[in-house]
Amino acid sequence: MDWNDLRYFLAVARTGSLTLASSNLGASQSTVSRRIAELEKSIGASLFRRHQTGYFLTDTGQEVLRHAELVEDSVMALERAAAGLDRSPVGTVRLATSDNLATDLVIPALPAFRERYPGICLEILTSTATAELERREADIALRVVRPLRGNLKIRRVGHMTYSVYGSRDYVERHPAQSGEPLGGRYAIAWDASHAHLPAATWLAREHPGCRIAMITTSLATQIAAVRAGLGLAVIPDFLTVNEDFVRVIPPERMFSAEVWLVTHADLAASARIRALADFLCVEVMQRNRDLRLPELA
What we know:
alpha/beta, DNA-binding, DNA-binding transcriptional regulator, LysR family, D-Maltodextrin-Binding Protein, domain 2, transcription, single chain, Arc Repressor Mutant, subunit A, globular, LysR_subst-bd, transcription regulation
């Protein structure tokens, strides 16, 4: 049995879609379909029920899924162990982080990193979704939500404060009512799939009845909406330095979030992983006065 056939099988089983699986794998739908058919032929049983709404596992498929995930765990562990053996900072490193941390913090600092480590190719995966370090979806992650499970090495590398902001024009045209900062005003909010984020949980907890003008899936679109005068939004303070925004609720009345640098424990000794981790900690986070840890300020 070919491990690559199991990879294709796992992708279809997890997405329930040939289209999504082929996109995730970077392969054509015909290739994915062919590899699934070859796996079914080698096993001698159907693994999926094909339906116009998607691919559904048969009983045999459910059993194969259980074993395939055990194989995958073993292969991933081997890959992590091999990657952790390197002693020189050369190769590809996959960093998972959010759009705003990538565009406003990491990428502007990369010329210095490239000059120092020309042998490292950095692959940046931007999403608010948590990349699975256990499955090598990324090698290292910069997050504002601390992971709670997994064989991970976690470092607290930054401290991020938040405020509620509006454009100067919007705040002047919509004065607060009844002594409430959000009274008579609209808010820009996160969608349900991002309800776990600190800004989303704060807004839902502190202002559950506020009027919503727009729901978005990224901080960049929220900032653009505030800039356009559509309403107020919870924004990290370091992102508003060059904006003509007005603080409606200051950070002292808000919340703050820690920034965590996360790597898989098996990769902690890797020279290229360590090089990026140390660079992000010292050159990116601690050199930014709005993000450095309070004890180092």
